[in-house]
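Hey, I was hoping to borrow your eyes for a little while. I'm sending you its amino acid sequence along with the backbone structure tokens. Take your time with it, there's no hurry, and the full record follows here.
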Amino acid sequence: MLFGREARGLTNEELKRCNYHVAIPTNPDYGVLNVSAAIQVIAYELRMALVGSEVLVDEGEPIMTLPPVQWDKPPVTHRDMQYFMQHLQEVLEQSGFLDPAHPDKVMPRLQRLFMRTHMDEAEMGMLRGALKAIQKTMQGSKE
């Protein structure tokens, strides 16, 4: 989790590195929370999303359990997702879809789209294979 500065939040470069963006609703007359309050709210909401009101107890101590993983393959790592996004940008530029001088108009939205999917390794492999096939086809048509 990455929290912004009290005075000015996160820079555009920092925002691009984030997988999800969260805004905390506030009073419209004073729409500001200090960072410690924001951290408390987010930590509470994450805990409630994870376990709700059901807290298990192990030898008198409360514990939080993670929900079972539904994938047949492990989820992709953040590093693999970054490699995928670089590969996607390369293919989109080569195809003419993406203007290399202005990737910031499209790529952050595509990254948010793909980060919401929670891809596993097999799904990532299929997409990377598709990108390679597209590149190969584009290279063949240029020759």
Remarks:
- Helices lie at 12-16, 35-51, 78-95, 107-115, 121-142.
